[in-house]
Amino acid sequence: MHSLEKPTHCGHKVNVDGGATGASGFMTGDGVFRDSFGVFHGCFTIALGRGFAIGAELSTTLLVICDTHGQGWMNSWMECE
């Protein structure tokens, strides 16, 4: 379960989670973006193909890092489940 508390510092908080159905099953990732005022900035769910849960977690984390950098959010806090 995601902790949906707002960040306590300036910047953005991203809650991310990834998972797979069984050994080498279908992987998915999801996340929620909020700022330090608790304002919702978006969410996502993505299908990542087949693999293991650790692959889903790492892929989702890397996608979020690339996206937040591309948005110019240089001060982000990420929480992974």
Characterization of the model:
The chain is 22% helix and 46% strand. With 81 residues, the protein is an alpha+beta fold. A four-stranded mixed beta sheet has the order 3-2-1-4, covered by helices on one side. It is elongated.
- Give the tally of β-strands: 4
Approximate helicity band: 10-25%
User: What is the overall shape?
Assistant: elongated
Q: Hey, roughly how much beta strand do the residues contain?
A: over 45%
User: Major sheet: order of its strands?
Assistant: 3-2-1-4
Distance between the termini: 7 Å
Number of helices: 1
- Model regions low in confidence, pLDDT < 50 over at least 5 residues: none
- How many strands, which pairing sense, and closed or not: the largest β-sheet? 4 strands, mixed
Please tell me how large the radius of gyration is: 13 Å
* SSE class: alpha+beta
Mean pLDDT: 83
Order of helices and strands: EEEHE
Give the SSE layout.
Layout (H helix, E strand, L loop, with lengths): L11 E9 L4 E11 L4 E12 L1 H18 L5 E5 L1
Parallel strand pairs: 1-4
Antiparallel strand pairs: 1-2, 2-3
In short:
With 81 residues, this protein is α+β, with helices and mostly antiparallel strands.
Which key phrases capture this entry?
single chain; 81 residues; alpha+beta; 4-stranded mixed beta sheet; 1 helix; 22% helix
